[in-house]
Amino acid sequence: MTAEQSMNLFLTTDFSHYTRISNIFPERNFNWLTTELVTWKTFDGTIDQGILYKPENFDPHKKYPMLIHYYERKSDNLHNFIRPEPSNSELNIPFFVSHGYLVFTPDIHYKVGRPGKSAYNAIVSGALYLASRSYVDDKKMGLQGFSFGGFETNYVITHSHLFAAAMSVSGMSDFISAYGSIIYDGTSRQRQYELYRDRMGTTPWQRPDLYIENSPVLRADKVTTPLLMMANTEDANVPVQQGIEFFTALRRLGKKVWMLQYDGENHNLAGQLAKKDLTERMFQFFNYYLKGEPAPKWMTKGIPAALKGIDTGLEFDTSGSKP
């Protein structure tokens, strides 16, 4: 396989010469994608890499909106074929690229104690580097991250006004309260924060300044980017309270924010109806802010809890109301 061609079967007797014995290329029925390995210098002077996905019918003379998606390092996916499918949490790259978006996936290299700043260093510097290209619409750039990528979305929008829209899925917002929480199996999350993915390398008592620095909720007043969130009550990995804290803070401050919550769903969505719903709302959200398409009613009017599951609000609002 390649990023441009799906997997097929080959026959070989010597592992030097191959004969293809299947010929299945469903992607040829769609506006597929191409990949480019991008290299640039970050704010701290280090060299970083990421993948830029372009539509198959890419026109360098046009302006394209760009979505930036991240989770640690993704540049080793340069030649991977990505299946188009409903989103269970992450951005489905072929789906958005086939609808006229550029998608960029920068690698993030972390410094212990500075996970948020490390993400900012890679994401924002990469966005500015690509924004200098004539075909990137620098006024129509968006962010999408899941889990630790969701935290990184929360952090970046509290430190930058560069992006026109952002989506945070199952992400942390308060490192202090999260440090004291438990994981699905009942164990403390402290190990994760000190030694593992969250990369703090210390406790809140030794370095409270670092835990404050990496808590986006404490900078919610700085946010100017419209934000779509997902936080599920049965999330066994990131406590739903992390999403609620950030959502209620932003609402209290009068910011543009929406939170999706799927009953019976975990950190990732498993149900096909929930996946389809998330994909459609994500698509409508970014289309409104990055393409200027009409807003749906769930964005302009909201859906009261009493009507959850009854009124989807997915139809476009024709009244002239704006989010």
Automatic annotation (TrEMBL):
It comes from Puia dinghuensis. This is Peptidase S9 prolyl oligopeptidase catalytic domain-containing protein. Signal peptide: none annotated. Pfam families: Peptidase_S9. One of its GO terms (molecular function) is dipeptidyl-peptidase activity. InterPro entries: AB_hydrolase_fold, Peptidase_S9_cat, Serine_Prot_S9B/DPPIV. One of its GO terms (biological process) is proteolysis. Residues 114-292 form the Peptidase S9 prolyl oligopeptidase catalytic domain.
